[in-house]
Amino acid sequence: MSAPAIELKKLEKSFGLAKIIQGVDLQIAKGERHAVIGPNGAGKSTLFNLITGRFAPTSGGVFLHGEDVTGLKPFEINRRGLSRSFQITNIFPNMTVFENIRCGLLWTMGYRYSFWHMIGRQLDVTEKAEEILEQINLSNRRNELAGTLAYAEQRALEIGITIAGGADIILLDEPCAGMSHSETDLIVDLIRNVTEDKTLLIVEHDMGVIFDLADKISVLVYGEVIESDTPDVVRASAKVKEAYLGASLEEEAV
Amino acid sequence: MSIASKTPLTAGTTRLISLSNAMPWAFAALFLLCLPFVFQSSSALTIMNQMAITIVFALSYNMLLGQGGMLSFGHAVYMGLGGFFAMHVMNMVEDGLWLPLPFLPVVGGLFGLVFAFLIGSFSTRRAGTVFAMISLGVGELIAACSVIIVVFFGGEEGISGDRTMGPPVFGYEFLTQQEVYYLTVVWLLVAALLMYLFSRTPIGRIANAVRDNEERAEFVGYSQRNVRWISFCASGFFAGVAGSLFAINFEILTEENLNLATSGSILLVTFIGGAGFFVGPIIGAVVFTLLQTVLGLHTELWALYLGILFVACVMFFPSGFAGLIAMHRRPLALGNLKLLIKPYLKVAVPAITSVLSLAAILEILFHKRHGYGGGHEMHLYGIAFDSGAYQAVGLAGIIAAISLFLVSRVLPEIREAWDSANHAEDRV
Fold it and tell me: Which among A100, A110, A109 is positioned nearest to A133, based on CA atoms?
């Protein structure tokens, strides 16, 4: 058995006195589609930020394929094959759609900080970027500024940038947030396509999406994982019903 | 159809610069080559040289502001240091060091690069306010040093040299203004082309990405600090080149070349021209140099007019002159540019009149306060009158009021023409 794609060991994060993540242990196997669910404020986004290096954990460790990446910077973690999207659309608004995708490609295709290549002449980059545009269905928007796209298109672009570099671990933070049903269906299909043979960790509120996509589900409540198993087991779990559904019922009552 | 099959979507990208991209450069080179035949006087050549130096400096500044999203208040440091080192090297050439003058800008550029490397190591960690404040601090620090370290900076008189002491290049010793013009212009073309090409490299594109969204750039594998640092070094190099060209042209460098006023004015130049466009700084540098030299010959208030222009730019056309021009690309593409000609011509006369009459008011008041030896006799726009009399200001005021009123009457028409020029349907 090879090392898990992502392993979290006793991960903790506090902001001042507030303990947001309180000792999370989690293993995500290679090639698994893993979903994290939980009520608002459970610490899902914080967990993502800890894994991807946006925040440094207070204690505990993050391991990718068995390698300790705790405390590394986002770009260092990205170079180790992990890529993420954001809950709030995070693109390059004043560059064209094509260039947005190309930015996602340059490092992994070996161009790094090069000032001796003319970017227009690198056919491999251009072709790969066109391919990804095709995949996320934005070829017809190729030359428009990313900031002028419709919301759903920006979300698709966000995923495009995330997968462009060919990372084998993909983290998606609420990819379907704020989308209509038909748009959600398109995005879910897209996610399924682009994460083929990859490890996926996804945070999402839409339960339909979760049970549709995920091989395994972890339930995060108040910074602790109270259950981590297959969708069927999670659905049947009394603990989850009590903690999570109780909370979401409260939420709905408000 | 065979043509279509031979031109895939990436056609024309196999050369370093495609033919269509090379045309503007060839045209610019030809234009610069012919310029001295039109403007032959020594002062005109000096103005053109100064313009070329400012263009290189402004383009290097825009590598930070426009392309890298770094607002620097101390860019004159790199031009100044590059220039001072170039001047010292020029003096070493006089003492026997072998270095043909045309290569001096490489030396100055390398010194600019070294200092950008050192200062950039800590100033580029963060963009935004932190970067701006550090640039201001470093600018002040170096400006202060220039007064203190007299051995190197020459104190208040600065340091001077003689450019003609180097080995002749193809028989040229750079004794005449014309020879210096061609040296400057070749460097202008080389530096501008290199800076343009830099913006087309992976690092150049990623500099844009970091400007747009530094966090996202980190999540696609780039260290925002390293990206800024590399841009900063490249920018420092070209600023150093500009400084060397200054040393060659004027054969003197003083504290003025690296103080905060110079740093401020290059920000102004770049902004007025349009930081969002590669040609922006070029336009800005041309406008600025003309205001400074040509207008500066006629009035002491040129800096005030420049300031007013800057404020107007920030308020009404924040993308600069280049942005104003670029706005017309859509009407041009739609073939609607002719809709705009009539309203533009209509507004031109009252607009120019109002600018001239408002300037007249300022000039008359200034003349009255500072009445030069000969009392209040004043010449303006070819008219001689008494600046002390109320009639002059009054008349200028009335003309200004009338012309401004006329401008305001034409504005709705322009707005309407603009809207219809930007809509494809209206024409079809």
Answer: A100
**Nearest-Cα residue of chain B relative to residue A165:** B220
Q: State the Cα–Cα distance between residues B49 and B312, nearest whole angstrom.
A: 28
What are chain B's domains? 19-324 (1.10.3470), 329-421 (no CATH)
Q: Edge-to-edge, what's the strand order for the sheet holding A33-37?
A: A82-84, A169-173, A199-203, A33-37, A216-221, A224-229
pTM of the model: 0.91
> Amino acid identity, residue B63?
M
Say whether pLDDT at B141 is over 60: yes
Q: Is residue A127 part of a domain?
A: yes
Nearest CB neighbour to B220, from listed A73, A78, A113: A78
Dihedral angle over CA of A200, A203, A204, A207, nearest 10:
70
Structural domain contains residue A1: no
Residues B207-263 have pLDDT tens digits of 999 999 999 999 999 999 999 999 999 999 999 999 999 999 999 999 999 999 999
Q: Domain total for chain A?
A: 1
Q: Which residue has the tokens 């992976």?
A: B202
- A181 reaches B (C-beta below 8 A): no
3-class DSSP assignment, residue B51: helix
Q: What ipTM did this prediction achieve? A: 0.92
What's the CATH code of the domain at A167? 3.40.50.300
Q: Is any Cβ of chain A less than 8 angstroms from the Cβ of B221?
A: yes
Task: Write out the residue range of the structural domain in which residue A25 sits.
Answer: 6-253
